[in-house]
Amino acid sequence: MKKNFELIYEGKAKKVFSHDHADKVIIEFKDDATAFNALKKSKFDGKGELNCQISSRIFELLGKNNIPTHFLGIKSEKTIIAQKIRIIPLEIVLRNTAYGSLCRQTTIKPGTPLEKPLIDIYLKNDELNDPLITKDRIELMKILESKDLELIIDLTLKVNKILKIFFENIQLKLVDFKLEFGYNAKNEILLADEISPDNCRLWDLKQKNDTIVSLDKDRFRNDLGGLIEAYGEINKRINDFMNSIK
Ligand code: TMP
Ligand code: ASP
Question: Which of the listed residues 10, 14, 34, 198 should we mutate to test ligand 2's pocket, taking the one with most ligand atoms within 8 A of CB?
């Protein structure tokens, strides 16, 4: 970045910089990829830019559908401007189809459709390896009030309804995804972080047989190769669809 904005925070996939306006931040999407709490690390040229574009389109869509989000606009190929928030240290995972840790930790078979969306909440704490957490433990730790937890769960279910239909339109199955929320300066709860193939599982519905073709970070997690090609395909389908409905 040309101007010297102050680095406020660096995560595994993004950097957060100060903005001239105290209630705003600049978020840069990095090319770094990590999995299994950064036990596995790599870098993919162009990933930051693709995730920035994909996430921005999705946040615009959610905003139009009355989901309150931190997103204010795209700044450059791999940076956005967002409202400054205090992140709530929870990772809200919603699953439509069983896969990943749900299948490792239960006897449910991979690919099983779930009768209703399953919400799994994890404590966002790298040192503790983001453990699965209960509502009672969240209350005990005073992470947030129960009415706010209910609001976050309700928003997550609404996001799922919007995104499931959106992705089906571009021949992608939304298997599961992870959301993060925060409070802005007015203490309003906003959807934050990103929504991209880094934190969603998206399966290609263009396949003729039942084989699972992951177009998301499982390509890296499971050493499948072709991560940038997969993210590029998601970006292309989103752009083609958005242009077709203009
Ligand atoms: P899981 O099956 O590994 O629990 O992942 C569920 C979803 O959450 C999947 O779409 C990937 C996403 N996820 C993250 O975004 N960050 C994480 O740290 C983890 C573990 C999962
Ligand atoms: N984001 C997590 C990590 O960096 C895990 C994952 O997405 O699988 O390790």
Answer: 34
